[in-house]
Design brief:
The chain contains seven helices and no strands. By secondary structure, it is mainly alpha-helical. The protein has a single domain, classed as Globins (Globin-like). Helix 1 packs across helix 7, helix 2 packs across helix 4 and helix 5 packs across helix 7. It binds protoporphyrin IX containing FE. The site of protoporphyrin IX containing FE (HEM) has 14 residues, from helix 4, helix 5 and helix 6.
Length: 147
């Protein structure tokens, strides 16, 4: 319960528009693994990562990712209701060539974004609470990926 409060409050403190935070997260992701950029078919329409991340298609994916996280935060009490959606999402990412190990790098990028946005509010318990939630999301996506 304490974990849920930490997650909800920190997510809310990022403000209503989560897209800028998503850009920070994906900038970090493409720094950690630049090859992920090429999995987006529309990456041929842009040059480097910063340019791609300002393109409408990439911004749309960033927006979708933030909406999934938002859904998870909203459903902390009943994450299992997202199960079918997440299984399907994992399957779709398998189809576009994302490896399950990359979900771990996404997690690191999420924590990086939280740390840069929250500053001193980013504590060890908060980090652990986010990791726990993210690992539930990734475990469902990974099961869907393998199906
Ligand atoms: C769709 C790549 C991580 C949520 C897609 C697509 C690609 C892609 C190529 C299809 C084209 C598009 O819709 O833009 C990646 C890569 C990731 C990643 C390379 C990093 C390893 C994530 C994560 C989430 C997510 C972590 C959410 C937690 C979505 C959603 C869609 C999508 C909601 C739309 C699926 C649909 O069409 O129903 N992703 N993705 N992605 N991705 Fe990702």
């Amino acid at each position: 319960e304490k974990d849920k409060g930490l997650i909800r409050d920190s997510w809310e403190s990022l403000g209503k528009n989560k897209v800028p935070h998503g850009i920070v997260m994906f900038t970090r992701l493409f720094e950690l693994d630049p090859a992920l950029l090429t999995l987006f078919s529309y990456s041929t329409n842009c040059g480097d990562a910063p340019e791609c991340l300002s393109s409408p298609e990439f911004l749309e994916h960033v927006t979708k990712v933030m909406l999934v996280i938002d859904a998870a935060v909203s459903h902390l009490d009943d994450l299992h209701t997202l199960e079918d959606f997440l299984l399907n999402l994992g399957r779709k990412h398998q189809a576009v060539g994302v490896k399950t190990q990359s979900f771990t790098v996404v997690g690191e990028s999420l924590l990086y974004m939280l740390q840069s946005s929250l500053g001193s509010a980013y504590t060890t318990p908060l980090r652990q609470a986010w990791l726990n939630m993210y690992s539930i999301v990734v475990s469902a996506m990974t099961r869907g990926w393998a199906k």
